[in-house]
Input
Amino acid sequence: MSLKAKKKARTSFGATAPPFIDYLKDILRRYPDGGQILKELIQNADDAQATKVVFIHDERSYGTESLWTEELGKYQGPALYAYNNAAFTEDDWGGIQMAGRSVKRDDPNKVGRFGIGFNSVYHITDVPSIFSSEHLGMMDPQEKVFGERNGGFRWSLDDAEHQEVLLNMSDQFQPFRDIVSLVCEHGWSKVVMEDQHFSGTIFRFPLRNEASEISDNLYDSDKVVELFDSFIADADLSLLFLKNVTSVSLLHISEDGAVNTRLEVQSSVPTDGVLEPEEESVTEGLTRFKVITVSSEDQKETKWLLTTCTMKEGVAEDLDLLTKKLSFLPQVDLAFPCGEKRDCSQSRLSCFLPLPNNESNKTGLPVYVNACFGLTDNRRHIKWQEEDQRHDEHALWNEMLMKKVFPQAYIKIIQDAIKLAQKSILPVSSVYNLWPDLTQIQHKDKWHALTLDVFHHLFRQNVAILSLAKDERQFISPSEAVFPCNGPTSTNILSAIKRALVSCGENLVTLPASVANAINEAYPNPTTLKHVTPAFLRDILHRTGVDNITKDDKLSLLEYILGDKQYKELEGLHLLPLSDGSFRSFTYREEDTALIDSHEFPRVLLPFCKPFFIPHDLTPACGAHLKELARRNFFKVTNIDASHVAEYARRYLPPDWKQTGKNLVTWDNNNSQHPPLDWFQEFWRFLNSHFNELSPFTDIPLIPVSPLSGSQTVSVAKLQQSTTLIFQKSKQLNLPDGIAHLVNKVGGTVVRGNEWLKHEDLDSYVLCPSPRSVLKVLMNLDFQYLVTELTSASHTARNELKDYLSYLDSLSKTEKDFLLKLPLFQTMKGFSVAAQSKQAVLLISGLTVPTELPMPDSIIQCSTETDRRLLQLLKVHLLDTAEAANVLVDSIRKGACSKYDEDSDIFKELIQNAEDAGADVCKFLVDFRVHRDAPESLIDPDMALYLFNLPKSNSIFLKFNSENYTLSETLNIQVLDDLQYFMKFILPAVHQLTETQILHSLKLLLLLHYSSEDKKTIISSLKTVKLIRSSQVDGKLYPSSTLCYNDTVFETKRLEEALENKFLLLEKLVLGQLLMCDDLQDVRKTLAKNQIRDSAETESSSFSPAAPGTEIPGEWHDCLDMNVLNNFEEGEYVGYSIDDKYIYTVIVEELPGHNGRYSWRYKVDIGEDEPIEVSCVDLFQFKREKKVKTERRKCMEPEPQKKMLKPEENTCMELEPLTGAGPHSSERSTNSLPASVEEAEREIDKCLAQIWRLPEEERHKAIKRLYLRWHPDKNPDCQSLANEAFKYLQNRIDELSKPKAGDSSFSSRNTNFRGFYEKWNQEARYHRNSRERFSRGYRGFHSYNFWTHNENVPRPDREEARRWCRQARCDLNAAHKDTGGGSTEWCLFKVHQAVEKSLIAACYKRNGQHPNSSSVSVTAAQVSRYSPQLRDLPEIVKNLQTLGVDPKRTQYPNCHPYPHIPNGQFRSENEMLALNKASELLNKIEAYVN
Output
């Protein structure tokens, strides 16, 4: 190297360009792969003013023999071609070789101005080729094909040598030859040899099939398909903003040369609808339509309204400066899709071609925005003036373009759209669709601000932009418009308002919510605008009236004008709707009355007022407003209530029901003026809900006297105070048919059927069937008509009436006087007469009086027991034999017996009667004195009984009374004074007696007093006596040992057991009361009164304990466990202390949040509507006693350092806790008494330590309980232990109550309890006395034990329940192990065992008892009633039985047809089905138990 050269090398300095390969790699890194590559090629074609672009994916591979160089062989495979119909210029040939240095940089009308767009093809290929105008060139940036430092080669069509090569080197140029023939009309030879020019451009990009220095991105056919798909996604947008290209096609050529068109996009510009700008505008441009047609498998055509707006030079100086500096065009294009509603969220920006579909390029506008934007280097985003680009000129350009040109473009497209709509070229809806929706872009700050700017520009111009409702193609400015109402309003209401205002000539505009929102947010003075409001509309309607408005529109307008609750302003408007479709005015006139019903008072209650009700199908809002209007007493609109129903029901009765004087009216279902069939039942439901008394409804026909029927008329009775109505059947009482017939005959009304006819006051208007009620009905009837009808009635009917009335227990003076006037009795000659001023001769004791004897008409017959009972009630004197004789003698004396046979001897007749009666003495007494006492008092009692003396009797006489008189006559005995006579005479006779006679017998039995030995004898005998008749089954008598009631065997642990144990029925006279019952209803009442339940009732009611809230009898107070450390189970039956008394209570649930054993709280049922919350110190379990085991207590053994107990105390009783109920801690249960005094003292100290920490009130209760627990009076069997412990307790209480200087942990809370000792001592003594009284009363029968006498009180046993659940789970697991082993019967048998034990567990949880039934079906039905979660147990058990779960069929061969055995008789697939079902059942019961 020369010295000069060395010197130059040393001084040379400056930046050098990077190798082209590195530069290219950087471009590819920043520039995206994908559909953007095709867009760049389209941009270049558009810049070249091409109108057609074709992309071809050619999968063919060409020969490699005749090539320019053998290195080109690897590029003869599949390739991507891009064709356009514009030829390269010399500048283009130069520019494509200048990577990143575009020749179009200074031309603002050129799209591809960056110079890097074309280089994106290197993502696909390493050697791109271009055939255009006079040249075909290949580019080799790697310089591997054409030699070092040769980056490519270009053949020229005007060079003969090159022509030779192009024609004859067939393999090398065959790809171009094929594509030219595809896209051009001329062949390859003509183009090369004759034309020497190709009027278009073909790019060939051989697909990279191996990594190169440029890129390792390999391109195969699949990637080309992805490239095409990416372009297809934006195909309809690709031609939207291009100036020249009108067609883009995507072709595919398969390996065999088949050509297929995947896509073709074309654009066209219709000649109609082109609008030029106004001359005075600051912008220039035009608005036109552009149609984009996309053809692939389907064809889709989209019509776009396209506005181009360019800011004129000189309008914005700063914008002009940047325009010149950047060579950018200050133009904004907006495109709006006509005829289709597109999702605004998908609208995005374009820079002549769509920018990538990412969030930053989405505007949320209804239009697509195109402009000459300043983009980022990778052409994916627009630059904005952010922190890192504050001074970037491209970012500043974008900001100025959007602030100065964009609003003008938007205003132009809206105004031009209005012009097109007025010419009917564009739908009016499209005009409003152009308006941006601010709610859609509120999260896009940039575009939200720009949109507000657009609206501010638009509204300042105050131009006609709003469409009139009456003519949508007529537009007015906002200041002239009447805007629709604000707020959410239904479509129907808006339509009605529109029709009403249009008909009135108002400038109502119609606009969607987005437009209204834009006006509300951006209009400069929104308060100056006129809006439709309820007040505005009311004013219009007052002014114009509503006569020409349809019914539906009236309802919609009414709902709207009610909305502001200015109800007073409605006055006079004829808009009050009625259910018949008519309208009334809002006034206070009676004729404008409207009624509003409710769920509580439905309109069906007033069918006669149907036209007065508002329509039932009003909208909820309208209905609510009318109800509120009525509530405020505006106008004659009424919310009906109970008083209104009563008023209107009376006022609007059917005309034929208003007739006075008639107690019965006729109801006809076919009469439109009569209420419908279901009205009566609905109205009575209303009466029961809202009226305790029926007096407001008197004289209204409300009582159907027979079952209602839609096919025939029915009489309906009016409610009347002096009623003549009586039920045939009510409250399980029945009116005999004969009595019912007679009541109807004499003018009364018997009401039958209609079980729903009930009311607490109905008994005042329709009487229950009873003798008293029949008497009331008769007294309320017309007396003369009653007497006439009774006289004409049959003898049988009168007798039946007498018999029925004779069961009255008493009569008032008015009732007696009334009955005395009725012709119910017969004279001795058989004529019907009243008993008033009459005497009666007793004919039922064997006395007969011949009809021919001269008895006066003042004497009536007492010939039956019925006559006797009724006459006694009426105080009619009954003549005995002697008195009858006196009357007869008197009549004979007066000559009244003139016709009597002289040969007859009246005294012979009387003596014969006495003899027939079995008398051995007969005396005739005639007494003419007036006596104050009854006649029977004149006769010596002893002598009287001699009338019926039995010669064989040698017993003591009974004291005379009417009952013994009748009994003696009935049994034909003389005396019933001792047990031997009872056993000898009464017991045998009872078998043959009637029921009435049996009643008399039992009365006598129960009046006598027997020793306990006598009782046993009687009980033993009574077991065989048939005493009770079943009226429902067969009418037979049954032994008392199976006492029948309600056709089921009634048991109180069976009658004989009850009698043997307590003689309870006899002592309480229950048996006697039962036997004196007249009918089944009386039996039920008697049993209920004595707390005896029907065995046919459900388990829950049979022998149920006293109801919660019932006071605990004093006899059981000593059974209440005073230990405060008990735990209570859900469902447990306990005592509750309240107001110095104890009541029965049921535990509902344990409450959380306790702090210590004495602070537990529970919810309990005390018989009120809702459970109450109580403290554990107010709750008491019932004790159970048991003998103390010898090893448990050693009261007899003296031990060192222990206090000695008396020898007699070896019978100490300990308190046994309720099974399953124990203290919450793991400590020893304190329900049992301690074993020694020292242990008792330790327990007392421990309890006091905890009790003293309680609040004052709770501490007092707990101390009281501890005091009573150890009181000697309450521990009779452990006197010595109790005395010592009680003294210690009192001393400790006194010590703790005294203040101490040291202040121990529980001595600071001091209360003097000594003042309560006497009161507590009295309570303990009361408990002891009650216990002793009970023991004396039941001596020899029962011990003092609450549970013995209350065996059906539930005693939940959760621990036992859990034990059964555990075994059930083990059985189920064992059954699982038997599955799939060929022994399905064993699996199913074990499933049965698990199910059975599960159900038993539930029973223990509920009541602490093993179920009575061994059937799982029966037990499941019982358990299902315990809890809602167990209701489906019977269905589960039924399903299990269907699957073969049976204890016998799974075990015993004789349960299957011979010769089969259980093995093999059950389907193996049933194993898992049964296990799943059983598991479901067990899970439910475990949840219940736990």
The two ends are 106 Å apart (CA to CA). The longest strand covers residues 283-295. The mean pLDDT is 78. The first helix runs from residue 3 to 11.
